[in-house]
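Whiteboard transcription, Tuesday session. T.W. wrote the C-alpha cells on the left side:
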C-alpha cells in the first residue's frame, strides 16, 4: 500500500465488539479471563492495550520495521533503547543531539557505566576514529537540532553492520514520510511522537521501531518491565494525528521551503541553516536520503544584541520550545531547548544568542513570513 493509505489504515481494523470504524480508547487497567488459564490474549494493560497496539502496528508499518513500541515520552523511548547496552559499553553519538538526549546520556546513563563520545557524525571518518573496543552503538540525529547538519544514514548503517554495532536514528524531525532510516539499513528508529507524528501539540509520547527480531523482543520486554508505556488516550491521539501526517508534512515542507527562501534574502539575517537551500553544505545528501526538507529552519540574526527585540515583536509565531505542531513556533535554542548543554559546547556548535529556530507550521505561509518580517525589521 502507499504511504498515505498505510498512515490511515495500518494497524486499524473495525472494533470487533461494535464495528466502530475508529480504534476505541480502551481505558482499562485489566481484562477478565474467560476461565482459569484462559485469557483472551489481554491480561494487564501495562503489558498490552489494544489502542496502543494499533498505534504500534501502524508505526512499525510506516517505518518499515519488525515491531514498534510506544512510550510515555520520546525520552522514555530513548531510555528503553539504551538498555540494549550493558555496563562498560560505549556509544558514538551525534555532537548536537537533542538537549534532553545529551542530558540523559551524560548526567544519568554515564553513572551506570555507559560511555559516550559526542562527535560530528556528518563525517564518517570522525565516527571511525571514535570507535573503541567496547563500542556497541552509533546513535545519530539527522538533521541535527538546531544546527541542521545531516548524517549519511546508509553509510553509517553499513559501517555499523560491518563492525557488529547497533545503528540508531532519531527520526523525529523528518518522520517516515520524509525519511525512512530502516530502509537505508539502520537497525533502530526512535521518535518523540510529541512532535510531527502527533502533530497537534496536545500529547507527549515516544516510540522505538526495530528492524531486528532480537531488538524487538528486548524492547518489548523492557517496555513491560520498566513500564514507561504510552497511555490509551495518548495512543489514540497519536494514531489520529498520523492519519493526516502526509497532508501535514507536505504543508510543513512547502511552507518550510518558502520561509527559508524568504529568510535567506532578508537583510537582517546573516545565515540560514536549511538543507533545502542549494547553499546548504549537504544539500545533495538531503536530496538523496530525504523525500523533502521539512519545516525546521534555523537562522542567525546579523545583530545578536537585537535578538530580544525580535522575539518580543513576534505576534503570530509563538515563542515556545517543542516543534512539529500545526502552529508555527519560534525559539532561542541557547536559552531554551539547549540551555542544559554546557556553554563551551554551545559556543563550539554555534548555538549563540542570535541563533533562532523555527518550526514552520501549516498556517498560510504569507502570514508566517509577514510576522517574521515585521519582527526582523525591529531587530
Ligand atoms: C523532543 C525530542 C526528543 C524528546 O522527546 P520528548 O517527547 O520530549 O521526551 C528527542 N529527540 C528529538 C529530536 C526531539 O525533538
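and on the right, the sequence the group agreed on:
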Amino acid at each position: 500500500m502507499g504511504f498515505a493509505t498505510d498512515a490511515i489504515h495500518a494497524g486499524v481494523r473495525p472494533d470487533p465488539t461494535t464495528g466502530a470504524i475508529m480504534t476505541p480508547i480502551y481505558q482499562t487497567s485489566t481484562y477478565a479471563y474467560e476461565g482459569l488459564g484462559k485469557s483472551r490474549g489481554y491480561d494487564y494493560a501495562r503489558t498490552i492495550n489494544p489502542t496502543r497496539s494499533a498505534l504500534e502496528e501502524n508505526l512499525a508499518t510506516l517505518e518499515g520495521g519488525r515491531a514498534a513500541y510506544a512510550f510515555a515520552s520520546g525520552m522514555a523511548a530513548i531510555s528503553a533503547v539504551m538498555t540494549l547496552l550493558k555496563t562498560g559499553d560505549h556509544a558514538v553519538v551525534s555532537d548536537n543531539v537533542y538537549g534532553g538526549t545529551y542530558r540523559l546520556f551524560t548526567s544519568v546513563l554515564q553513572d551506570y557505566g555507559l560511555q559516550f563520545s559526542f562527535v560530528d557524525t556528518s563525517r564518517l571518518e570522525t565516527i571511525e576514529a571514535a570507535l573503541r573496543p567496547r563500542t556497541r552503538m552509533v546513535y545519530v540525529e539527522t538533521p541535527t537540532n538546531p544546527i541542521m547538519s545531516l548524517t549519511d544514514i546508509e553509510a553509517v548503517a553499513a559501517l555499523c553492520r560491518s563492525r557488529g554495532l547497533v545503528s540508531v536514528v532519531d527520526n523525529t524531525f523528518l518522520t517516515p514520510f520524509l525519511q525512512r532510516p530502516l530502509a537505508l539499513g539502520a537497525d533502530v528508529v526512535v521518535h518523540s511522537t510529541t512532535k510531527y507524528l502527533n502533530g497537534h501539540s496536545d500529547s507527549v509520547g515516544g516510540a522505538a521501531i526495530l528492524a531486528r527480531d532480537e531488538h524487538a523482543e528486548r524492547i518489548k520486554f523492557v517496555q513491560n518491565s520498566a513500564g514507561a508505556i504510552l497511555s490509551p488516550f495518548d495512543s489514540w491521539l497519536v494514531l489520529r494525528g498520523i492519519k493526516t501526517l502526509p497532508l501535514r508534512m507536505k504543508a510543513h515542507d512547502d511552507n518550510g521551503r518558502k520561509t527559508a527562501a524568504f529568510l535567506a534574502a532578508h537583510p537582517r539575517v546573516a545565515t540560514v541553516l536549511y538543507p533545502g537551500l542549494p547553499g546548504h553544505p549537504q544539500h545533495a545528501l538531503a536530496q538523496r536520503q530525504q523525500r523533502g526538507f521539512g519545516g525546521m529552519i534555523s537562522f542567525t540574526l546579523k545583530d545578536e544584541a537585537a535578538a530580544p527585540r525580535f522575539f518580543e515583536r513576534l505576534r503570530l509565531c509563538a515563542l515556545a520550545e517543542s516543534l512539529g505542531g500545526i502552529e508555527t513556533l519560534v525559539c532561542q535554542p541557547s536559552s531554551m531547548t539547549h540551555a542544559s548543554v554546557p556553554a563551551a559546547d554551545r559556543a563550539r556548535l554555534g548555538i549563540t544568542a542570535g541563533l533562532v529556530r523555527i518550526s514552520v507550521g501549516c498556517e498560510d505561509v504569507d502570514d508566517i513570513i509577514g510576522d517574521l518580517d515585521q519582527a526582523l525589521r525591529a531587530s
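Someone added at the bottom: The first strand starts at residue 67 and ends at 71.
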